[in-house]
Structures are given as C-alpha cells and as structure tokens.
Design a protein that fits this description.
This protein has twelve helices and three strands, in the order H-E-H-H-H-E-H-H-H-E-H-H-H-H-H. The protein has 306 residues and is an all-alpha fold. Strands 2-1-3 form a three-stranded mixed beta sheet. The longest helix is centred in the middle third of the chain and has 34 residues. It is globular and about 65 Å long.
Length: 306
C-alpha cells in the first residue's frame, strides 16, 4: 500500500515531436476556450433574458454549466502534459479526484439529457398541462436528482478502482485518468472492477437512452397527428437540437465504455475521448443556438448591446 500511495502517473505524449505536441496543445487550447465561452454565453443569456425563463432553457443553461465543469475537469491537466511532453506528474489522489469528477459530471450529463427529453415530451404531448407538470420546483428537483444520481454512480466506482494496487508501469496511455486506461496499470486481477465499470456504464447509458427513446417515439406519434405543416415543423425544431446532442454524447461514450475489455484499444480510446471531452462541449451551444430561433435572436440582441 505504501508503494501505491506514492505512485505518480504520467500521461503518454501524443507524439515524440515537440512541434506536433505544440500543434496539438494549440488545438486543445482553442477547443477548450471555445467551449468555455460558448457554454458560458448560453448560461448567461438564459439567465439575463426573461423571455428564456422557461423549463426548456433552464435545463439548457444547466447543461451548459455542466459542460463547463466537465471539460474543466480534463483540459487543464491535459494542456499541462502537452506542454511538458508528458512529464507533468499527477498523484494517485489527484488522478482519483479527476476520475471522480469526470464520471460524476458525465453521469449527470446523461441523466439531464433524459430530463430534457421528458420536458419536450410534456411540451408536445401534454401542452395543456405543461405549466402544471413542469413547475419550477419540479424542474429544480429534476436537476438536483440528476446531480445526486451522478454522485452515487461516481463515488463507489472511483473508490473501488483506486483500492487496486499500482506497482508497475505508471505511464497512462491517455491524456486524462480514464477508467479503462487506469485499470490496465493495476498489478492485480481486475475482472471484478471491469465488470463493475461495465455494469455502471450500461446503467448510466442505457437507462437514460431508453427513456429518451420512449419520449421521442411518443413525440413522433404526436407530431404526425399535427395537421399544420408549420406546427409539425415547429414541434420538430424544438427536438432536433436535443436529438443531435444525444447522438453525439451517447455514441462516443457507448463506444468506449460498453466495448468488451479485451477489445479496448488505447489508441482508439484516446482518439474517441477527444470527441466527447473537447469537441462535443463545443458543438452543444452551436447546435442549440442554430436550431432555436428564440435563443439565436436573444443571443444576437445581447451581443449587440456589447
């Protein structure tokens, strides 16, 4: 245990060429700053615009804030390691902390996407009861519930993994403390831990995705029954941005965490992780602002004031 407690992890560089590393650093930095500014803008605009004080935009602003923290749990350490060519160490406790917040925020993100689908279901399928069902207290409770579920999923899984002994290689084939990459460094049997990771990932991804799918099947049936083409288009436009974000988020994470451990590829895992840790948080605000005319118009008005 003493050896394990003193372990320091190092992240393998993307390239041994300093110029390539610097180019990747600049790309990551631009993506991180773009993600921060885009999501911060969404959150601020929703907060200061009374016309956007509705459940749909409340959940969107919450998602934007989550994305800021989610990316920030990964980016600073990744950027530091890119600059140092993988020579910036991270302690066992530091690695565990990063893993905890990554899983906590990622799990909350998945649950919140299901909550947003439910909000769209109520808005389209139960429009007359929408204000009664989606009261502000209910909205706050749904967000709080998402955070609690994310916490309850993250804490035991992170604790289980970091009770493993690490006494051999301490080079992580990744740019952050991702669970599959860390498990490969343990000098003990990890079958139980891999099974726990798979079951947790399956629950986090499949249960919300099932609820989202049910919501959109019912929404599609309701949209088909709308007689007006304009009404159908308007109803679909409120859902299309959310569907795009769901496909991005769930597609990438399912590829990594629902693949059998024996088929896990460090190279592929690192490449796909770039998508859902850096690229997806950038795309979310752009997708929502492009698809939502109300949000787009409010953003333009706010920017003109400055």
């Amino acid at each position: 245990m003493n050896k394990t407690a003193k372990i320091q992890f190092f992240f393998r560089p993307f390239s041994s060429d300093p110029e390539v590393q610097m180019a990747i650093f600049m790309a990551f930095l631009v993506m991180y700053l773009t993600s921060l500014s885009g999501n911060a803008m969404i959150a601020v605009v929703v907060h200061i615009s009374p016309s956007l004080h509705t459940p749909m935009y409340f959940f969107l602003a919450t998602l934007a804030v989550l994305e800021i923290f989610y990316t920030s749990s990964i980016a600073p350490l990744a950027l530091a390691n890119l600059l140092s060519m993988g020579k910036t160490p991270v302690s066992l406790a530091g690695c565990g902390t990063q893993m905890f917040f990554f899983v906590f925020l990622g799990g909350t993100d998945c649950v919140l996407l299901a909550v947003m689908a439910y909000d769209r279901f109520v808005a389209i399928c139960r429009p007359l009861r929408y204000s009664l069902i989606m009261r502000w207290r209910v909205c706050v409770e749904l967000v709080a519930g998402s955070l609690v579920l994310g916490f309850l999923l993250s804490l035991p899984l992170t604790t289980l993994i970091f009770h493993l002994p690490f006494c051999h290689s301490n080079e992580v084939y990744h740019f952050y403390c991702d669970m599959p990459a860390i498990l490969r460094l343990a000098c003990a049997d990890t079958h139980v831990h891999e099974m726990a990771l798979y079951i947790t990932s399956f629950l986090v991804l499949s249960v919300p995705l099932t609820l989202i799918s049910i919501s959109y099947v019912l929404i599609a049936l309701a949209i088909v029954q709308i007689r007006s083409a304009v009404g159908r288009r308007r109803a679909f436009s409120t859902c299309s941005s959310h569907i795009s974000v769901v496909l991005l988020q769930y597609g990438c994470t399912s590829f990594i965490y629902l693949s059998p451990g024996s088929s896990y590829s460090p190279e592929m895992g690192r490449a796909v992780s770039v998508v859902y840790t850096f690229i997806t948080p950038i795309l979310n605000p752009f997708i929502y602002s492009m698809r939502s005319k109300e949000l787009r118009d409010t953003l333009k008005k706010t920017l003109k004031k400055f």
